[in-house]
Specification:
One of its GO terms (molecular function) is DNA binding. The chain is α/β, with parallel strands linked by helices and about 325 residues long. It contains twelve helices and twelve strands. It has three domains: about 80 residues, Winged helix-like DNA-binding domain superfamily/Winged helix DNA-binding domain (Arc Repressor Mutant, subunit A, Orthogonal Bundle), CATH 1.10.10.10; about 100 residues, D-Maltodextrin-Binding Protein, domain 2, CATH 3.40.190; about 100 residues, D-Maltodextrin-Binding Protein, domain 2 (3-Layer(aba) Sandwich).
Amino acid sequence: MPGITVNNLRRLDLNLLLTLDVLLSEHNVTRAAERLNFSQPSVSVHLAKLRDVFGDPLLLPGPRGMRPTARADQLREPLREALEALGRAVSPASPFDPAEAGNTWRVAAADYAESTVVLPALAGLRAAAPGTRLAIVQMVPSRIARQAERGEIDIALHTSDGAPEDMHRRVLFSERYVLAGRAGHPRLKRRPTLAQFCALDHVIVSTDGGGFRGITDEALAEAGLTRRVVLSVPHFLFMMQVLQSTDLVAMMPSRLVRNVGTLRVVEPPVDVPGYEMAMFWHERSHRDAAHRWLREFIAQRVAEGRDGQGRSC
């Protein structure tokens, strides 16, 4: 509203602005009072306060009611726009319609979560919400909370262990490890003994980069044993290509190798703890209708497929 100062703005409240809007429409105190469900004296008091705030009479007596001053005419349109914008801001959020939505969602995920959570949901997501876009961004666990707080990501897919404690979470499934090698691997025709397992050449996914030790090695160490880890890689996708083309073996999350015909999968002779795969999001988007729909959609697709971030194993 042109010309109003910060000090004067502090003296205004919503009732005064609503009264002014109706007065500028009716040009009559009595009719304005009826529309506002106020008494006529209350509207007159409001008008007096408004005149003081704006330093202008705003409405003057005329032959057919009251006529606006030039200042009042200047206020009419911006005041109407401001009240309409405020009304939209405080009105209840409209239901989310995925078929009409144009959202761009950003999901932080490593390659394992891409394969076991995002990919199974993708076709259904495109069908249900064809106007939306999905960006998969690099998973950096130490940045999840800050990225979510800034709105840089909507959802993070990560194991429950080591994830930020102050974020909302929903566990999608529990994962376990199996031993995998190429189909036809001569030493995986049956479940190997513990000694045979330790003698195999292993490949490991190292999430911290270049490491040759994982939770399998921790489990073996409790029994005073070690295995031969000869290759460390950063991604599960490359690990699977290695397994398919060499005689290396690996402890793999079961969902990643299920129904892969080029691999032989057997139960390992060592008990390695599994983990929970979870979806994380920030409080800022917890109640957003579109965000809620996306979370429910992903969770439902995962549950339907019994189909998610693996650790070094």
